[in-house]
Amino acid sequence: MDSLHLPQPVAPQNKSKEDHNMSHGNENQEVKGSPAHSTVALIEREVKEADPWDLPELKDTGVPWSALDTRGKVLRVFVSVGKGILLLGLLYMFICSLDILSSAFQLVGGKTAGDIFQDNSVLSNPLAGLVIGVLVTLLVQSSSTSSSIVVSMVSSGLLTVQLAVPIIMGTNIGTSVTNTLVAMTQAGDRSTFRRAFAGATVHDFFNWLSVLVLLPLEVATGYLYMITKLIIDSFHIQSGEAPDLLNVITDPLTESIIELDESVISGIATGDPEARNKSLIKKWCQTFSNTTLMNVTVPGPENCTSPSLCWVDGNYTYTLKNVSNTYNVKKCMHIFVDVDLPDLAVGLILLALSLLVLCSCLVLIVKLLNSMLKGQVASVIKKILNTDFPFPFGWVTGYIAIVVGAAMTFIVQSSSVFTSAITPLVGIGVISIERAYPLSLGSNIGTTTTAILAAMASPGDTLANALQIALVHFLFNISGILLWYPIPFTRVPIRLAKSLGNITATYRWFAAVYIICCFFILPLSVFSLSLAGWQVLVGVGVPLVTMLIIIMVINMLQKQKPGCLPAALRSWDFLPLWAHSLEPWDKVVGVFTAKCCCCCKCCQLTANDQEHTETESVEKKNSHTEVYDNPAMSAEKEVENEIKIELKILKMTWL
Predict the structure, then answer these.
(1) Could you give the 3-state DSSP secondary structure of residue 492?
(2) Cys bridge to 530: 128, 237, 296, 647, which one at CB 3.0-4.6 A?
């Protein structure tokens, strides 16, 4: 046994950053199947030293510029220019696919969204109004569309401004699901997915936390309504027109695929019986309306337009009335204009195609950025985006990022487009979470300024209410920023997003659970309880919220001051493992995925493979017997092989 030398299980030098981050994400878990050797503790201590949120180094593996000849330099310039043009093209297709995705959701659920707004008895409940705003925005995938429905209802007198405030808050939450879905496309790499999902959900946490604070405050004081009312009454605001900036570029492509008549959804929400039978797909893009004064019959003199314009002839009552006739002039040119399919079928087709194009563009954009952002280029870009101003003006950097986010969102006229575009940049490590947070806050402001300008295009009699709703949206986001940004300690969304990113990096299936629970199950549950009455909502909601608050307080005390807690509550070990750990659920998901997704050829060896494996093992055993005729040498070799196998398993588990 003196000749037996065991290899030391040290961390491999060529370990990738992805594996490094995977290990760090599992630092609080035991390594399955590994004995409690001191070398394991040493390995884990080395892994814990690295911060998984550090931006990765994008190393340049190509030939340096100085080492290229003239032909190589010219070729590299042409390749770089070509990649830049291709990147712009992919971004254009990405934005257009988001627009088509919004149209597809409107075709699938637009009329349902209009129906949801008709029950004013439910809308009178602020919490129900909030979740209705979330659900409607999820159905149409556009906060602008859902906001326009609310404005139409307020303008027509079907909804008061006070009741519309919680709905506007809900639209702010619903629009943040798009970039969260975009982050799911980067689930292939753990480190990238950790950063991308955290960068996307930091927007979600900001919106949810702002609602948790500002909705009760608004119900108790009505401060959003009063301040915006004061602004509207204090200034003489003239009507204007909403700008068309990016739409001028994207409309030629999107309108050649599909055009929608969004007034149909507003008509259903306002109770127009004719709108229910209309198709959302626009058939005629240019119409002509002619109004003429005609003699019409009415049921009785009380229905006349004016007593002087009313007369009776026999059994009929006549009056003069303006009658408008609409004539179709020019048919639309999109590909579905003459397709004899229902709105649902067209919506499902566009939904599948837009998701395919969206995911393809996103994957190609990430790969292209990875190939472009190398060496000095990556260093310069990362330094510009993530470096703060020197002391004592470092605090200004975040506010400049907010202004940049607002300006970029104003240009693209969609917060979903902007936040979805920066999500892959966060994933590959070009933008840090700390910088993505103020950019997302600025995006929230940018989308409200567009809504304000759009509201200013309303007619004079509805301008005040429409503009007040838009100002409520703007003031809500400003109030949220004041709550969760100026003081570094209050930037809770960043810490929550990082915690969720660590969880999803270890258990990637939890990302889908988060999206389904936060954006579908929770709003639907609250909406269902609201239909049963506020007594049922309070009776079920208050105990659940109280229990959640108690759990959060205990978690905080366990980390900060465990001595303040009884011995039994200093950890959750007294509960079953499935109640305080995701590891048992991970096994369930793994088994379910293996049964659903793996075929027999991938999961099981064929009979021939099994026979070949058995033959090979017998041959190896015989060869060992032949080489080591001495029983002592054979036993020594078996022990050495067993130790090597254990070390190999330990290494694989660690990796």
Answers:
(1) helix
(2) 128
Task: Spell out the residues 6+ positions from residue 98 whose beta carbon is closer than 8 angstroms to its own.
Answer: 178, 354, 358, 414, 416, 417, 420
**In 10 A of CB 647, how many CB atoms?**
17
Domain-embedded: residue 559: no
Question: Which tens digit of pLDDT belongs to each residue from 206-234?
Answer: 999 999 999 999 988 988 999 988 888 88
Pair (242, 205) in one structural domain: yes
Residue 517 is given by DSSP the state I
pLDDT tens-digit series, residues 463-504: 777 788 888 888 999 999 999 999 888 999 999 999 999 999
Please report, as a single letter, which amino acid is at residue 383.
K
Both 440 and 525 in one domain: the answer is: yes
Q: Is residue 65 part of a domain?
A: no
Report if residue 74 sits inside a domain: no
Structural domains in the chain (count) = 3
Q: Domain of 304?
A: 284-331
pTM of the entire structure? 0.66
CA distances from 212 to 49, 130, 473, 482, 545 (A): 36, 11, 16, 14, 12
Q: Which residue type, as a one-letter code, is found at position 655?
A: L
480: left (phi over 0), alpha (psi -120 to 50) or beta: alpha
At residue 415, φ and ψ (nearest 5 deg) are: -70, -30
- Shared-domain flag, residues 261 and 324: no
Contact 175, 142 (CB under 8 A): yes
d(CA 61, CA 257): 42
